[in-house]
Amino acid sequence: MTPLKPVGPGARVALGLAFFVLFLAAWALATFGGYVSPTFLADPATMLREGWNLLAQHGFLKDILITIWRVFGGFVLAAAIGIPLGMAMGAYKPVEAFFEPFISFSRYLPASAFIPLLILWAGTGEAQKLLVIFVGSFFQIVLMVAIAVGNTRRDLVEAAYTLGASDRAIVTRVLLPASAPEIAEISRLVLGWAWTYVIVAELKARDLGDLGRRCRQPHARDDGDRKSVG
Q1: Integer Cα distance of 198 and 149 in angstroms
Q2: Are 199 and 16 in contact (CB under 8 A)?
Q3: Using an 8 Å Cβ cutoff, are 225 and 39 in contact?
Q4: Residue 186 in contact with residue 148, Cβ under 8 Å?
Q5: Tens digits of per-residue pLDDT, 137-165?
Q6: Is 86 buried (19+), middle (13-18) or exposed (0-12) by CB count in 10 A?
Q7: What angle (nearest 5°) sits at the alpha carbon of residue 183, between those of residues 178 and 185?
């Protein structure tokens, strides 16, 4: 192997598949070979059987869809408010000076720290779960978008001013297009983080109908197979 040498598309796919094959082989060896107790890790065949059983008989698909709705609902709400605010902070320094201290402080607080307040304000229903994901995603999006917009090449801005662009046109026709790819990457990254926040939101909840419930029930019954699926 040569450092930094690109890998061809075929080799990349083959290497990616090879990892999963080796992973499944190691998993099967550890479980079928008796090296790991079924209490701690079910074997692949049992996992498939219990997963199908959950889907076919226990409404697991509905639970999955409810959790997906919560993740995307909270994330879309955070992005709809956070991206415009982040762009305003990146483009206008007074706006950044006004919001940045509070948002920088809040972004380092764990989403779970807001749960008592969110339960007090929104109860224990659907709104509370969406707000946990919103809080966990919003502050991250705002600061990362502000940095992306603020790092736009100055020569592009100066060239646009030379050609007679207005301040509004600088934002809409220079800053936004130049930072759009990075904003898309930021959104993809924060959406991944939102899946960690939904685990917190659902594990704290007491209602039915989500993946958090599926994760809690096997622990209550000491059901090792479904515990692994969850």
Answers
A1: 29
A2: no
A3: no
A4: yes
A5: 999 999 999 999 999 888 888 898 888 88
A6: buried
A7: 120
The radius of gyration computed from the CA coordinates of the chain, to the nearest angstrom, equals: 23
Cα gap 126→144, rounded to integer Å: 28
Instruction: Give 72's DSSP letter.
Output: H
pLDDT in tens, 10-32: 999 999 999 999 999 999 999 88
Which residue type is seen at 169?
Answer: A
Q: Which residues contact 211 (CB under 8 A, 6 or more apart)?
A: 63, 64, 66, 67, 198, 199, 202, 230
Give dist(CA 45, CA 61) in Å, integer: 20
| Amino acid letter, residue 39 | T
The label of the residue with tokens 């076919």 reads 56
Label residue 34 left, alpha or beta by phi (over 0 means left) and psi (-120 to 50 means alpha).
Answer: left
Contact between residue 95 and residue 150 where contact means Cβ atoms under 8 Å apart:
no
Please state, in angstroms and rounded to a whole number, the distance separating the CA atoms of residues 135 and 114: 8
Question: What is the Cα–Cα distance from 136 to 75, expressed in whole angstroms?
Answer: 9
Residue 161 in tokens? 């001013």
- Which residue, among 90, 181, 95, 195, has the nearest Cα to 137 in the 3D structure? 195
Q: How far apart are CA 90 and CA 74, in angstroms?
A: 23
Q: How large is the average pLDDT for residues 54-83?
A: 87
User: What does the pLDDT average to over 70-75?
Assistant: 93
